[in-house]
């Protein structure tokens, strides 16, 4: 049988015009392969393995392959196995060639080589492909004897060990009075923050980190000993010649010194504090030390003096003082010098707190490490960082003489097992990892070491990976005679145009300057067939979104400007600017035109640059809202305009889908902004978050709670669950709670039955309803992040149970592995899917995107600076790692290294794209070159902007002076502007409304002041109602916060309980005192009195009843659909089917249905109701009609707080005479306080504001008369409150403003909108509105007339 031939395809093995050097197996033993992003590193690695196996005949079991993630390990194992299987099958079938034929370098698979490959396949599981930690873990287990370890030693989590050990460490080694650390700990607890949790957290963070800690303070006891001697010298001198405490000689001397005017007060204050400390004899040495630091002795030792002697002054400087005063100053100078030399001097009290904390950390870190190591040895455990340390120590044991012994037993054992090591992603290595591979393979003359990496993608410095380590390792490897450096220069990921643009950006000055040795070489396109075909002409491979400036002329700004001596504008100009006050523009041209109308073109032109510089909005720092909306609109347009994507592998392209698009950001908070914009536009998305979700407190508490459900017969499990925030029962009460609260045991048994019946969705919902944890965390904590975590974890578990058919117990074992970080490879990536991945736009952080690729990539955010750091990690001038715990300012080396890592992070993000890349851009202000349109701190965008400036200029030049089309086709850049439209402004306002009720708060300040006087709680300026109400609850005041829905429920209950007249009946008051008394904000749509099962309604029940049953759950389901969908997308569709079958809409509706537990059939009915509701014409008033889908300016779920008056007697909230008859004159009783709630929809139409309330009631018919009766019977009080709340919010203080601005109130009955105009419109007159207000403000037994139907 003839041999099978395979053409070598990798540039590492095949010579071409692009590659001059190739890998020679016979002589290259130390090889560095540098591969830019997208150049096919994994494919090249496969071919290297084949070369070593087929040419050098090295068994695969002798080739060690190391990657840095489990995901990469699994991918490499799968690809290599598939490649071997393909070769064996082709050889056995008698083929002459496999793949492309050619005359270049090739392999020939003869009979011996075929047997070798077949044997390798049979034992492929033994092929050593590991992560670095997996490799070390294997060494520890297989060579336990050589490592001098116990054979049953187990891996543990340092965080868990620390939790158990830290407090014991404090009690045994820190807090005892005879401990050398006790005095410093005492100072920390008394004079610093004293927070042991943050201290533990920082110590835990520093435990595995290597580096020199600075400042290098002496031990605390040594410092106190030296300081005490210096202090005694100064005190002895001070007491010897001090005449009396009130007239200290040094005070007289400094009064006569020629001090600088602006510094004199501070110098004398410092002197007074020093004299006071010296005169207080009962202060301990430690307290004197702190007080002298706070007194800032440097001001006294080196006082600032003026050159010209002032009248009455005697001493020009401290050198002119009398001898005794000089001696005093010298003694103080020695103390100041001692403090300064040891970096103890501070300028602010806050710095002293940081100093004490840093000093304590430096003192405790070594003994804590020692204590933790002792405990690990005693318990026979080790953690991830221990694996590397133990392996390194046993590979390279240090001799007593200080030298190293290269012939350790572990070294011999490992070298005998492997001949070659290939390390992928080598730029992510750290010094310890490099030391292991250097010793095992590079220092051996019989072994090979091949490393593959790209220093431009070294982005994990925060994990200890260092690009400097890579550069040092590269230099060491290339210094050998048998070394070779190879490069992969062809990119197989991106289109030719995109690569041209990226080459231009990365070859700009300023990129990859630090550290030395970093370079960027332009890459070539390896597959010219890759392309994105877009019918829109103004979209090139790299497209910029130019963020526009905002200019505002505010009257208060003009008033301040008028008082400034540096005001650049003359009086004539200022007068014109005052006339233009209120101008708000979003482009330079619009702003200058607006000013020119007041000043005239000549005056405006003369002061053009000053105008732009002065009135550029300084508060508009972050454009996330506008940019997010622009990205969402662009994605929607991409999907609608049928863009084709050719990946270069298939002959025909495919339509661009949602999952082909990725949006990258720096922080998850930016992703949350973007996800809301995508939801508003009906775009399905998959939001990936880091694995830290399963390391949160919420994950552990959910695990404890569900374990208690599964094992409800074990009281200790239940007691553990009771400690969680789901119940919040104190530790001392958990034992008695099981007997005093028998309902707890009942709930756990009921939940277990649900789990056994497979009703986990119902179980999770009931858990949240019964424990009310979401309400407490949101309203009383407030803890939005915790609520989000709970929701996401339960959603993930439910999805896992549904997709894999797991029981609850099996799902909990999976959750346990995720928490312990021991999950299977497919779940152990850095990402967690929170939405459906298929046909969804991918949202992820820049760090998470490494190793991934997408046809279209948007860069969003990156405008925010790096988070503040307690400790600065960087390298000193000798290249040694340094951890600075305390000091002034930010180290220059840290700034340089941080900037360099931000550049590398941007490189990773920008190289994920295959066909198109979208980038934000902020231009310069015209005539003010250093000033950009938007301010931002040091961040990713700051690194990117300078390289984009010349490109943007060229884009604008081409726009102004179009060049020939052939030139334009070769130019890979285009741009469009980001301008805040009216819709975007409304959505931004909507976002602000969600986060703050400041606007509403301004209208009720009087009521808050009255309540404040009664509550005794001070009210802070700018405090929102939620803050104030939360403070009242926390202080357990009797002030009421209630809601219409709770009043409604109690009223319905009262009506059933009191069918006859009972004027003495009163309702209980709603006291918002405890965590379990949280009020709802969304009103129930269907009062209990409107029941689909009643005889009156069951005869002619709506046919949709079977699909959408009555009740609050259906109302909530429909509410969420109406709140989250894109109304514009509904308007563009011609039928329910067309709208609901849109992929993005379908995904969104399905998620909402799954969340609320509704079936596919129910979803179809709900979609039909929603579509008909939004597209039916609704008449509002006499001459105006609208379609709700046409309303662009709208706010969903607008919160309000309506103040209730103060009265000694409980106040009766009652509607009209008609409602009086419903319950014999009794309404709702509440104490004085606030009624809070949310209005389903507030929208603006033709200049007027309307309120809308969605109703999902099942009625026997939806005639106008029946709807008017339903509103009058059940919602009249709500109507009055809503109207008054909105009038207060809009500040409509007179009838003219009311008539002009307020449109009215709509009650839309969703179930009837398919067939009839099932809505009720009400617009009370100004007189009726004032009557409502009067009724509420002056409680009495007379009632205004009913609202006419």
General description of the model:
The protein is an alpha/beta fold. Helix content is 48%, strand content 14%. The protein is built from 52 helices and 41 strands. An 8-stranded mixed β-sheet has the order 23-22-24-21-25-28-16-31. A 6-stranded parallel β-sheet has the order 6-3-10-11-2-12, sandwiched between helices. Strands 32, 35, 38, 39, 40 and 41 form a 6-stranded mixed β-sheet that branches. The radius of gyration is 37 Å and the shape is globular. 35% of the residues are buried. The model is unreliable at 822-837, 982-1026, 1032-1042, 1053-1083, 1088-1105, 1205-1232 and 1338-1349 (pLDDT under 50).
């Amino acid at each position: 049988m003839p041999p099978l031939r395979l053409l070598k395809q990798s540039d590492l093995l095949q010579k071409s015009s692009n590659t001059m050097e190739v890998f020679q197996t016979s002589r290259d033993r130390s090889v560095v392969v540098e591969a830019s992003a997208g150049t096919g590193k994994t494919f090249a690695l496969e071919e290297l393995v084949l070369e070593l196996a087929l040419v050098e005949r090295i068994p695969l079991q002798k080739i060690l392959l190391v990657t840095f993630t489990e995901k990469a390990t699994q991918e490499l194992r799968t690809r290599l196995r598939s490649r071997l299987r393909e070769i064996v099958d082709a050889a056995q079938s008698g083929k002459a060639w496999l793949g492309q034929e050619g005359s270049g370098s090739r392999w020939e698979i003869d009979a011996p080589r075929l047997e070798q490959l077949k044997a390798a396949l049979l034992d492929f599981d033994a092929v050593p492909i590991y992560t670095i930690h997996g490799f070390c873990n294997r060494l520890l287990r297989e060579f336990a004897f050589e490592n001098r370890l116990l054979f049953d030693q187990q891996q543990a989590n340092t965080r868990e060990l620390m939790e158990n050990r830290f407090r014991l460490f404090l009690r045994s080694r820190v807090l005892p009075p005879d401990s050398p650390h006790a005095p410093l700990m005492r100072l920390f607890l008394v004079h610093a923050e004293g927070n042991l949790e943050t201290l533990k957290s920082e110590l835990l963070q520093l435990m595995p980190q290597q580096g020199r800690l600075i400042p290098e303070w002496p031990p605390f006891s040594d410092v106190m000993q030296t300081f005490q001697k210096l202090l005694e010298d100064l005190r002895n001198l001070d007491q010897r010649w001090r005449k009396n405490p009130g007239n200290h000689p040094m005070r007289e001397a400094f009064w006569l010194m020629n001090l600088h005017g602006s510094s004199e007060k501070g110098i004398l204050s410092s002197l007074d504090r020093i004299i006071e400390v010296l005169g207080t004899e009962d202060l301990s040495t430690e307290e004197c030390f702190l007080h002298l630091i706070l007194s800032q002795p440097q001001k006294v030792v080196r006082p600032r003096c003026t050159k010209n002697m002032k009248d009455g002054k005697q001493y020009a400087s401290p050198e002119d003082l009398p001898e005794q005063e000089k001696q005093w100053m010298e003694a103080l100078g020695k103390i100041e010098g001692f403090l300064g030399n040891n970096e103890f001097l501070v300028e602010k009290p806050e710095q002293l707190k940081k100093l004490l904390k840093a000093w304590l950390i430096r003192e405790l870190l070594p003994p804590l490490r020692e204590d933790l190591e002792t405990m690990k040895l005693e318990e026979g455990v080790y953690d991830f960082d221990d694996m590397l340390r133990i392996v390194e120590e046993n590979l390279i044991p240090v001799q007593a003489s200080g030298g190293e012994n290269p012939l350790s037993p572990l070294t011999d054992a490992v070298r005998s097992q492997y001949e070659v090591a290939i390390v992928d992603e080598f730029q992510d290595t750290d010094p310890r990892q490099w030391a292991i591979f250097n010793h095992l393979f590079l220092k051996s003359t019989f072994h090979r070491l091949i490393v593959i990496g790209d220093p431009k993608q070294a982005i994990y410095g925060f994990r200890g990976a260092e690009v400097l380590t890579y550069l040092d390792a590269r230099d060491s490897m290339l210094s050998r005679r048998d070394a070779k450096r190879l490069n992969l220069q062809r990119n197989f990921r991106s289109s030719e145009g995109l690569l041209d643009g990226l080459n231009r950006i990365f070859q700009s000055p300023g990129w990859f300057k630090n550290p030395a040795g970093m370079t960027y070489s332009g890459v070539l396109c390896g597959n010219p067939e890759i392309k994105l075909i877009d019918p829109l002409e103004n979209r090139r491979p790299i497209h910029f979104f130019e963020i526009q400036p905002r200019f505002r002329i505010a009257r208060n700004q003009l008033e301040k400007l008028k008082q400034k001596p540096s005001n650049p504008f003359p009086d004539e100009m200022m007068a014109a600017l005052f006339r233009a006050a209120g101008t708000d523009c979003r482009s330079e041209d619009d702003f200058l035109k607006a000013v020119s109308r007041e000043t005239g073109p000549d005056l405006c032109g003369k002061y053009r640059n000053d105008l732009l510089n002065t009135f550029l909005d300084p508060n508009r720092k972050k454009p996330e809202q506008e940019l997010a909306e622009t990205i969402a609109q662009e994605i929607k347009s991409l999907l609608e305009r049928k863009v084709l994507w050719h990946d270069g592998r298939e002959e025909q392209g495919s339509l661009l889908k949602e999952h082909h698009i990725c949006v990258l950001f720096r922080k998850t908070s930016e992703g949350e902004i973007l996800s809301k914009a995508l939801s508003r536009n009906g775009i399905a998305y998959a939001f990936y978050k880091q694995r830290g979700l399963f390391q949160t407190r919420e994950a552990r508490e959910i695990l404890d709670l569900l374990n208690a459900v599964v094992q409800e017969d074990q009281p200790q499990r239940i007691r553990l669950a009771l400690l969680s925030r789901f119940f919040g029962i104190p530790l001392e009460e958990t034992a008695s709670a099981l007997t005093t609260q028998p309902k707890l045991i009942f709930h756990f048994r009921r939940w277990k039955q649900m789990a056994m019946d497979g009703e986990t969705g119902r179980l999770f919902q009931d858990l949240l309803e019964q424990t009310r944890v979401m309400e407490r965390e949101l309203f009383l904590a407030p803890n939005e992040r915790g609520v989000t975590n709970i929701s996401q974890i339960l959603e993930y578990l439910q999805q896992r149970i549904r997709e894999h058919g797991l029981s609850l117990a099996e799902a909990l074992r999976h959750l346990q592995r995720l928490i312990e970080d021991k999950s299977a490879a497919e779940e152990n990536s850095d990402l967690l899917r929170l939405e459906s991945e298929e046909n969804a736009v991918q949202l992820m952080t820049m760090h998470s995107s490494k190793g991934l690729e997408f046809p279209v990539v948007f860069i969003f955010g990156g405008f925010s600076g790096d988070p503040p750091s307690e400790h600065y990690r960087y390298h000193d001038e000798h290249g040694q790692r340094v951890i600075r715990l305390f000091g002034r300012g930010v180290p220059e080396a840290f700034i340089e290294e941080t900037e360099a890592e931000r550049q590398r992070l941007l490189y990773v993000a920008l190289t994920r794209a295959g066909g198109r890349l979208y980038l934000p851009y902020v231009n310069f202000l015209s005539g003010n070159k250093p000033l950009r349109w938007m301010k931002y701190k040091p961040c990713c965008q700051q690194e990117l902007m300078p390289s984009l400036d010349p490109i943007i200029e060229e884009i604008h030049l081409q726009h102004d002076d179009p060049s020939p089309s052939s030139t334009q086709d070769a130019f890979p850049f285009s741009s469009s502007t980001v301008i805040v439209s009216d819709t975007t402004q409304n959505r931004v306002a909507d976002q602000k409304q969600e986060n703050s009720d400041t606007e509403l708060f301004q209208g009720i300040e009087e009521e808050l002041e009255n309540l404040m006087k009664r509550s005794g709680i001070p009210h802070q300026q700018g405090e929102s109602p939620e803050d104030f109400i939360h403070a009242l609850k926390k202080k357990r005041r009797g002030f009421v916060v209630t809601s219409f829905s709770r009043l409604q429920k109690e009223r319905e209950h009262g009506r059933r309980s009191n069918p006859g007249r009972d004027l003495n009946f009163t309702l209980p008051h709603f006291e918002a005192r405890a965590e379990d008394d949280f009020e709802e904000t969304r009103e129930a749509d269907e009062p209990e009195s409107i029941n689909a099962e009643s005889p009156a309604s069951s005869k002619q029940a709506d046919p949709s009843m079977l699909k959408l049953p009555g009740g609050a759950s259906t109302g909530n389901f429909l509410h969420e659909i109406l709140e989250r969908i894109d109304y514009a997308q509904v308007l563009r569709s011609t039928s329910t089917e067309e709208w609901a079958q849109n992929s993005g809409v379908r995904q969104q509706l399905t998620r909402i249905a799954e969340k609320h537990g509704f079936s596919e059939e129910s979803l179809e009915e709900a979609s039909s109701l929603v579509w008909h509701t939004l597209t039916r014409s609704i008449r509002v008033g006499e001459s105006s009609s609208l379609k709700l889908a046409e309303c662009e300016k709208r706010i969903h779920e607008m919160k309000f707080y309506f103040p209730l008056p103060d009265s000694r007697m409980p106040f009766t909230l009652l509607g009209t005479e008609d409602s009086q008859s419903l319950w014999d004159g009794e309404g709702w009783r509440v104490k004085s306080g606030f009624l809070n709630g949310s209005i389903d929809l507030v929208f603006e139409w033709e200049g007027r504001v309307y309120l809308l309330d969605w109703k999902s009631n099942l009625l026997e018919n939806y005639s106008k008369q029946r709807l008017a009766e339903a509103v009058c019977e059940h919602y009249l009080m709500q109507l009055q409150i809503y109207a008054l709340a909105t009038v207060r919010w809009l500040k409509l203080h007179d009838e003219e403003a009311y008539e002009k601005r307020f449109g009215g109130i709509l009650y839309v009955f969703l179930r009837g909108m398919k067939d009839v105009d099932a809505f009720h419109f009400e617009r009370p007159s100004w007189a009726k509105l004032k009557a409502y207000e009067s009724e509420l403000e002056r409680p009495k037994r007379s009632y205004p007339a009913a609202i006419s139907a």
